[in-house]
Design brief:
The protein has 538 residues and is α/β, with parallel strands linked by helices. It is built from twelve helices and 28 strands. The strands form seven sheets. Strands 1, 2, 3, 4, 7, 8, 9, 10 and 11 form a nine-stranded mixed β-sheet that branches. Strands 15-14-16-17-18 form a five-stranded parallel β-sheet, with helices on both faces. Bound molecules: uridine-5'-diphosphate. Uridine-5'-diphosphate binds at residues 122-124, 252-255, 281, 304-306.
């Protein structure tokens, strides 16, 4: 690799002089360490100390300048997993003058994206924690283009899925270990550190039991934009043609097996009158699997990381996730959450083995494959008797590992029944009309007029114009919501109206000030913003 970097010509003396005179410059986005991404010029890394180095000079810049808050607990998260204490980034500081006494810097000319991969041997983690966040971090900063270079600092070797990481840029990603071969002091000309978390949808249960993230910000369109990019890099074209429909069974061959897989495949083929194909990570190339899944009508698989490949399913397809005995599907929903993201347009079905007869346990395996022989006898017995794994934190709960690594004989009739509850005719891509969820703008020119009849009765006539964007849209149903609030009161009277004006007389008092709030609603659930509040005096 050292030849590779030096092949790019840079003016070494000019670069060194700039570093000594200007020092390091850093400007970051984000208010907290959990949402921060920083852009650096002339950030260095000592491969001996395994530390990043910020060089101070009169021209250096550090924004935000947090003082010692930089260590409470860190400047930023290096991976997309929120606030994980093994993933913190910081640098040490030195005066630029110290460079005189240090190893000669080796300059990295490529624009660098420096991050941690979270768990590169697990496909769910690869896509969810790394590939999607890297892709969208690169979209966020224009100089992180295909000519930029990824640096993975978590310290792992390439891992099982390194080929996927290579698709994200034209340059070979470099690992922490490899940096040593480049030199003792590396200086990144331009670098970005941190990862966007905007696409992640799941939290793995480090501080509370696992589940969907509280504030999911990604939808199907952005996921498909990413999968389209990956498929182009893999030279896979999306077949638009109405070729034969089929079902894919994604099998595991090492553990968490489906014991009657042949019977299952036959039953699916018969029930849905479709060809049914098996794939596994062990037996098929990644691009073969993507090619098959991207045209499949249904994907059936045991709970497990391989199910993240539902990312590549066409819209309208069905995901069937099988859960071993005592594993409550509602408690483990990374793939359900993915399938049901807004705009993913996938149907999701969970099936659970509820029959103890149909499960095979492995109490004598090592603990990380679900063995429980190392536990005391009473605890072993409790686990074996239990009908459901109680909610737990990640990652070493022995009862969870024991149950999730069971093999399962799938009860075919009960599986077909749950699929049939959701999939009435043929599963698979329906030529759906693109009913996009576009929201109304504010209503315009809202006005009110009051009239008083006698001392106890009054009327309030309110009118407004349609939102500006409505005239360019075809909307099935347009309604307006009006809230009438007496000034100083906490409560309000809500109304749903079909027209652009209304005269309110119920509960309207004379000589009173009312606040009137109006918003537009498309198709029952697309709520627009409220227009500026109207002040109406009767
Ligand atoms: N894996 C697989 N076949 C197997 C067992 C595991 O393809 O028989 C893959 C799995 O999809 C994941 C990785 O190996 O990418 C690690 O699997 P593990 O059981 O540790 O994680 P899980 O699937 O439960 O997330």
């Amino acid at each position: 690799q050292s030849q590779e970097l030096s092949r790019v010509q840079i003016d070494y003396h000019a670069a060194l002089q700039a570093l000594v005179e200007d020092g390091t410059r850093m400007v970051c986005t984000g208010r907290m360490h959990t949402d921060r991404i920083c852009r650096f010029e002339s950030l260095c890394y000592s491969t001996e100390a395994e530390e990043f180095v910020f060089f101070h000079s009169n021209a250096s810049v550090m924004l935000p300048n947090l003082g010692s808050r930089r260590f409470q607990p860190a400047l930023l998260d290096l991976s997309s997993v929120e606030d994980h204490n093994t993933q913190y980034f910081n640098f040490v500081e030195l005066p630029a003058a110290a460079l005189k006494f240090m190893p000669k810097p080796v300059f990295v000319p490529d624009v660098a994206l420096i991050t941690n991969r979270f768990n590169p041997d697990n496909l769910m983690h690869v896509f969810h924690d790394d590939l999607l966040p890297i892709f969208y971090t690169m979209q966020q900063f224009p100089d992180l283009d295909l000519e930029s270079r990824l640096f993975f600092m978590e310290g792992w070797s390439e891992g099982l899925h390194f080929d996927l990481y290579k698709l994200l840029s034209n340059k070979q990603p470099l690992l922490r270990e490899q940096l040593k071969t480049l030199g003792r002091l590396l200086c990144f000309t331009k670098s970005y550190i941190g990862l966007s978390k905007v696409t992640t949808w799941y939290q793995y249960g480090f501080v509370q039991p696992q589940g969907p993230k509280a504030n999911i910000l990604v939808s199907g369109n952005e996921i498909r934009h990413f999968t389209k990019f990956m498929m182009e890099k893999l030279n896979i074209s999306l077949e638009e043609s109405a070729s034969e429909e089929y079902i894919v069974v994604f099998s595991r061959t090492i553990n968490r097996l489906i014991l009657n897989e042949a019977e299952l495949i036959l039953a699916l083929a018969q029930e849905f009158q479709m060809k049914t194909i098996t794939v596994s990570i062990e037996d098929h190339s990644f691009s073969h699997i993507v090619r098959l899944i991207s045209n499949a009508s249904m994907l059936v698989s045991m709970h497990g990381a391989q199910l993240v490949m539902s990312l590549f399913l066409p819209r309208g397809a069905t995901v069937v996730e099988l859960f071993p005995y005592a594993i409550n599907p509602e408690h483990y929903t990374p793939y359900k959450t993915l399938s049901t993201l807004p705009g993913m347009d996938l149907q999701y079905i969970a099936w659970q083995n509820t029959d103890r007869e149909n499960t095979v346990t492995f109490p004598d395996r090592p603990w990380d494959q679900g063995g429980i022989a190392h536990l005391d006898k009473a605890e072993q017995e409790r686990i074996i008797k239990s009908k459901e794994v109680p909610r737990h934190l990640c990652c070493r709960n022995p009862e969870w590992l024991f149950r999730v690594y069971q093999d399962t004989k799938v009860d075919i009739p009960s599986l077909i029944q749950v699929i049939r509850q959701t999939v009435k005719s043929k599963p698979g891509p329906k030529k759906q009309k693109w009913t996009s969820g576009l929201y109304p703008g504010k209503v315009r020119d809202a006005k009110c007029q009051a009239s008083v009849q006698g001392t106890s009765e009054a009327k309030l006539s309110v009118s407004w114009q349609i939102p500006w964007n409505l005239k360019y849209l075809k909307v099935r149903e347009v309604k307006y919501e009006v809230w009438i609030q007496e000034q100083g009161e906490n409560t309000y009277m809500p109304y749903i109206l079909s027209h652009q004006n209304h005269t309110f007389s119920e509960n309207i008092k004379p000589f009173t000030i009312y606040l009137v709030w109006i918003r537009c609603i498309f198709n029952k659930n697309l709520l627009g913003p409220f227009a500026d509040v109207l002040l109406c005096s009767t």
